[in-house]
Every structure is written in structure tokens, then in C-alpha cells.
Amino acid sequence: MLAPGTRLGPYQITGPLGAGGMGEVYRAHDSRLGRDVAVKVLPEHLAATAELRQRFEREARAVSALNHPNICTLHDVGREGDTDYLVMELVDGETLAARLEKGPLPTDALLKTAIEVAGALDRAHRSGITHRDLKPGNIMLTKSGAKLMDFGLARAAGPASGPAGAALSQTPTMTHPLTAQGTIVGTFQYMAPEQLEGKEADARSDLWALGTVLYEAATGRKAFEGQSQASLIGAILHTEPSPIATVAPMSPPALDRVVRRCLAKDPDDRWQSARDVVHELEWIRDAGSQAGMPAPVAARRKSRERLGWITALAAVVLAASGLVLAPRLMTHARAAKQVRFTIPPPAGYDLTNGGSGSPAGSVISPDGRTLAFVVNDTTGTGHLWLRPLASLEAHELPGTEAASYPFWSPDNRSIGFFAGGKLKRIGADGGRPQVLCDASDGRGGAWSRDGTILFAPFAQGALFRVPASGGDLTQVTHLDSTHQEIGHRWPRFLPDGRHFTYLSLPAREGQFDNFIGSLAGEKPRLVARSDKAAIYAPPGYLFLVRNETLLAQRFDARSGATQGDPVSFGELPDAGGNLGEPSASVSDDGTLVYQTIVPVNVRLVWLDRAGKTVATVPMPPGPYFGVTLSPDHRRAILTRSDPQTAQDLWLVELDRGTTTRFTFEPGNEFFCAWSPDGSQLIFSSNRSGPYDLYRRPVTGSGQEELLYHSDQLKKWPTTWSPDGQAVVFMGSNTKTGDDLWILPLSGDRKPRVYLQTPFNENDPAISPDGRWLAYTSNESGRNEVYVQPFPEPGAKFQVSTGGGDLAAWGPLGRELAFATSDNRAMISEITTSPRFQATTPHELFRYPRGVAGTAFTGDRVLCLVPVGDQPPATHTVVLNWAAGLEGK
């Protein structure tokens, strides 16, 4: 026991609150913030090894990120000497266990508490966290509602020890942190059958525990009882509790249905999400007499018919519990019915690009056993990870930093991917990646059975082939100038290994053409139009996306013809990504995987130089990105992404928050530059094929003008010279990547190169006096901010020192602000006389996670920030996806 006055870091112990197998709990005072907290001192076995401590701290941080009114907040985790401790919200009230000693809850109180606890579980499950020790003792009843305690900590606990005669209801959860098969996890009285069998718990195990808690709260009796651990385990595995209505006749009979489905022996027969339970409980609460029919009627209801899909159930349960499935069992199970489950990203990583909401690349192996996917760490750097479907653990493939768009070899042994301007391959069992060839801006690849890799090395241009062992590139497809093609990407081989599908740029009337090509150079054949690249799926389908709906279209791979009408496979919200990026991946054995990403709505806020929100623009939130501020700081141009209208520019009056659509043409419009007087905009649009430059008055009343057209360049303007005589734009081509160009706005208006290197130069910004140009280049191996004289290049000065993007000048040209990949806002003081000098950059603040655009004014920053809590992106896995489509 800790004596009052003992200090653990900034926390001073004031007295004990309780004790249990998971540790001792004390009331303490936080001297930094002047508040009382609860401090739990953890058993010594948690600190046994550095690995245990590190994993525990990672999981504690994940739990601390849960923000829900019915989850007890975890404030801190620390170590003082040899003592590890947790700091939690101090909750006043009584546990549900203490309350049930007085008898069952009244129906109204029961439903209120049940809805709150199920809602808390739903929030945690959507974040990839499982409680694994839900019981009445971990539910605190307070004046403001129920609070779920000790969330997720069972996952970090160590081996159990203690006398066998300890009361079962007080047996603490003691779990090996690496979750070995055969380890029993949870408090016996509330444990699901799969936990008793030593299998891994998942969200459905929590729903079993919720059912036992609801049964006990409604009846005052435990759902399962026994005279010993063995008899208790036998009761849980083989018996059913008495119907609630026979014990509590005045309870709503519909509640018995909810609880019985929670207590299904097979996880696949239970509710599949806590959100489903919330909806059912809310219906019971709101339905009144419809849900509360007389008990004699309820007693005559037949028992719920148990599902007969045992083999399919075995597939998903065993996959979720980390057991390896025999091939015949997996095949037989998938033949039975369609099964869906989700896989969250690893803790501390994001499935989207730097939190932007865009997908980062996922693909299932041909045999359907392993998922390869790209996640981003807090710095925005991509890493390639593998997750066997028959395991709960994913692991990183070392040496794959900055990876994108992975694809599998046909034998499931290797993975191709793009990183650092190269096409690489790596063994699925690890090892050192092998560089195959250059690929400055890869857009997808495919690997044939004869060892040919077909890929798009550039954002624009044709498809090329290279041997899987590396070597010289051979061009395979050719752009059709008569159709104004600018690029081919996202190839996928068809079963014969000679023909393949690919997507053509640009989009036409909002959709992309998908063609069938061949390694032999046959004339391409148009096969389908879709919002995304078409994906071939055995035994003869194409997956297409139209109007945010995933469609399965029958397809004859030999003739290249589609058949019948497409069948809807459900909504698939467009979450951005590169043009035409595939939304799904399909294995040969019928496993479908796609990322579930909720598009992010954002709003405009003003931040001061400390990162504090000082004002919010009163505009409706929406799917915007990119901020270009007018010279007088009273208006801004945003890009709005809409699957029905592609990408358009919108004008925002910052004082009033009014938004006006500025472009209406088909295709995408984005990247723009304001004229110095704020009367005109130059922007980029691909309405006619390549991205060209257009000029239009801001009022919209004047004539629009095409400034520059070229089939060889994609063009994106970002900065207009202060004298109004020129605009600087990024020009992208297949040979030198992204370069900087100057377009004069008078005279012959012939564009000229400002800076062209083998590296990528982006985001130019002219200084207020027109004498200097800041830009980003990856010549050092990562993006850094540089400055050169303008309008002619000269001596080059590097401003950033640890990476940098999106440089912006202060209003007098005496400061240069930029952002880092880990969302830090940096600033450097600039002097230009007698020579150019920049101070070492220092941090102003960290941008909010998921920021979608910024504009620097000198004293403030205009930011697009996400609205509310954004649900994390997850993988949705569908086993035997084609079940039910036969005959359609």
C-alpha cells in the first residue's frame, strides 16, 4: 500500500480507493492541473520486461485516445522508480455490481445503462480496441450516466496467479500480452466460449459479456453459474440461461431476444457489432408496448432458430482467433456463405495518407491468405505491412519506407511496390528489397505467371514491362492522341497472363475508360466505363465503381465482353486518392478486400501563431481541400471534391462564410493563383484532356480565357508575380517529373522553364517583392524548402533542415513559413541584404491531424480542419464474395 503523501511523478497520493487483482487504486491530486484523479498502481509482472512495458504503453495510448462520454478517460501512463501506474478520470458513483446487490434494475434504468455501455463499446470497437473484461464491476453508475472502466487494459496484462479458491466473480483478467493460443483471457463468469477455449477475443466476445451483464441487470441473477471453475465453464459452453421473461415477467420480451443473440455460442451467430445492439435497445426503449408484450405471450415464443452455417462460422472465428486454417477447411467454409469482417490498422498507424482521408494502397494475396497494405506513421511516411487473415497480428516489412501501391506475385511469395522513385520487390517473408528499375511516380503494377511485371512508372504516360528479376524497360501500350489520352495506369492481368485491363486518362464525362490490352501489342478494346479502375475477379466478373457504388459485372475474359447487368455490392464512398485508383482487391479463391473510409468534412478556422483557434469561418462543412487566400485576406478559393461533379473551385467570403461555386465545367479544376489586385484567378482544368491553364475574372461576369495548352505537360499554377506580368506553375512530364515553369502574361506568352532537374520541384511561391522564389524539391531524398532568385534562377539556398513542404512568405517577405510531414508549422526569418540569409527554422505549433489545407498571412493561419471525430479507416474483408450472385 502507498501511504498518503507518496508522489508518483506529478501525482500525490491522498488515500486508497480500492484494490483487486489488476492492482491497487488510489485517489491522488494532479499538482500540474490542480485536479483529483484516480491512480492505479500496476502489478510488478507488467514491468518484467521492456517489451511488456512498451506494448502496454502503446495500448494505453490507444485507449487514451478514446473520447466518449461513457468511457472513463485514461489521462496518463507513467513509471516512478520500479512502480508503473495509470492515471484515470476520477469517477464518483457506484459500480453496477454494487447496485445489483440490491436487486435488478428497473426497465427504464436498465435500457438507459445498456444503451450507454453498448455505445461505449461501439466507439472503442470502431477504433480497433476490445475490452475483453466487461463485467458489472467495470461499469460505474454516475449521475451523468454509465462509465465503462479499465477499457482495453486486460489486453496488456500478464499471466494469472492466485489461490484457486478465489471468488469467481472477482477473478481478474490476466492475459499474456502476446496473446498465445491456449491462454484463457477474462473474468470466468462473463467470458465467451471462445475465450474459455483459449482463443483470441474480438469485439463479438465483448458482446457476449454485454449479454451476460444485461441478463444479470434484468434478472438479478448471473446468466451462468457453477460450484467450481470446471462446472462454470461447462455451463457456459453447453447450457442456455433461463429466458429473462420467466425470471422477470415484466421485462420487455424483445430484450430477451437481444440478450440471447449476444449469448450465442458461436460468434458468427451473435450481433456482429455493438452498433447493432444499440439500435435494438433504442427500438425497445422507444417502442413501448410493442416491445413490452405480456409475459405469457412472450413465453410462448419459439426459441431463435440457430444458423446452420457451421463451416463458414469456423472460418471467421478461427481467422479472428489467430488459428491457421487448413486449405480444405477454408475452401469449404467459403463455399457455404458470404462472411464479412473488418481489420483495423496497426496501433499508431493510419490507413490513409497522412490522415488526409485518401487511401494508401491494400491488396490481398492470390491465395486469399495474406493482406498487404500501406500504413502511414505520424510523420506521414508510408510503410508496407502484412496481415495474415488467420492471425490477429500484422507485421511490418523492414526496408519499405515510403512504399505505395503494392502488388503480389502469382505464387504469393513476393510483393512489388513503389518507393523512392523506384520499382522494388521484397519477399513476403522479409529480407532486403530489390530495386528492379526506375519509376519516378508509379501508378500501379501487375505480375504475370511467366515473370513479367507490367506497371505505370509515371503519373502520365504509357505502361511498361520489366522482368521480375529486374532489367530493361519495354513500352507496352501507346497513348492514343486522337482521343487525347495522357496516361495509362492500374494494370491487372487476366487469367491467360497475356492480356490485361488498364485505365485510361483523362476522365470523360466524369468516368474513366477501362481497356483490355495485350503484351503482344494488339489493338486495345474498350471493356467498361467506371469511376475507378476495373478489377478482374475469378470466376468471371469485373468489379466496377459507379456513383459511389461497388458493382460486380459478369465478364468473359476470353472474349473481353461483359454480360448482363451489373449487381450492386453496396455503397463505397469515394475517399479520394490518385485518379482512378482501384477501390478493391480480389483473390483467386473468392476473398474481396476494400478499404472503408468515410470522406472527411472540413471547415475553415483561423489559428494564431501559437496554433490556437481564434475564429471560425461561418460556412457549412464540406469535402473541401486546398486553401488559396486572396491578397486582401477577405476571400479564399477552396477545391470541393464531389463524385457527381468531380473537383471544382469554390469561392468563400471569409467574414460571412458564404460559398459560391466558381467552376462548373466537366473534369477537375484545382490549383489556382490570385492576381495581385484580387480581380482574377488562373487555375488548372483537365476538361479538354490534359491539365491546361485558364484565366477568369473572380466576379464570374467576364470571359474565360485559355492561357496555355500542351499535350506534353500537366500544369498547375500556384503563384502570380507581384507586378502582374507572369505566373509560375508546376509542369509535369514523363521524363523529368515535376518542374517549374514561367508563363508570361503579355507579349508572345510563350512559357519557359525556370527550373528543370531529374528531381521533382513543387509548390513555387514568389516573394512579396518579386525577387525570390521559394519551392520544394526532393533532390536530397526527401522534400526540403529552397529559395532561388527570381525571375532568373541563381544561387540556391536551403531553408528547411528536417524536411519541408508548402512554403509561404510573410507579408513583408521577412519570414518564410512551411510545414513538415509530421504536421509541424515551421518559420524561418529571412534577410536579403546584403545577401540572402535564413535563420534556423523553429516550430510555431502542430497542425491539427487531418488538416486539408493552409494559408499563412503572417500573424494568422487559415486552416481546413476536420469536423468532429473522424472514424478510422479499416479494411473490410468478404469471404466468398460471389455467394448469392449466381443467376443474377
TrEMBL record:
PROSITE patterns linked: PROTEIN_KINASE_ATP, PROTEIN_KINASE_DOM, PROTEIN_KINASE_ST
Region Disordered, annotated ranges: 560-585
Gene Ontology MF terms in the entry: ATP binding; protein serine/threonine kinase activity
Keywords per UniProt: ATP-binding, Kinase, Nucleotide-binding, Serine/threonine-protein kinase, Transferase
Record domain Protein kinase: where: 11-282
Catalytic activity from the UniProt record: L-seryl-[protein] + ATP = O-phospho-L-seryl-[protein] + ADP + H(+); L-threonyl-[protein] + ATP = O-phospho-L-threonyl-[protein] + ADP + H(+)
EC number: 2.7.11.1
Binding positions (ATP): 40
Listed PANTHER family: MITOGEN-ACTIVATED PROTEIN KINASE KINASE KINASE 20-RELATED, SERINE_THREONINE-PROTEIN KINASE YBDM-RELATED
Protein name per the record: non-specific serine/threonine protein kinase
Organism field: Eiseniibacteriota bacterium
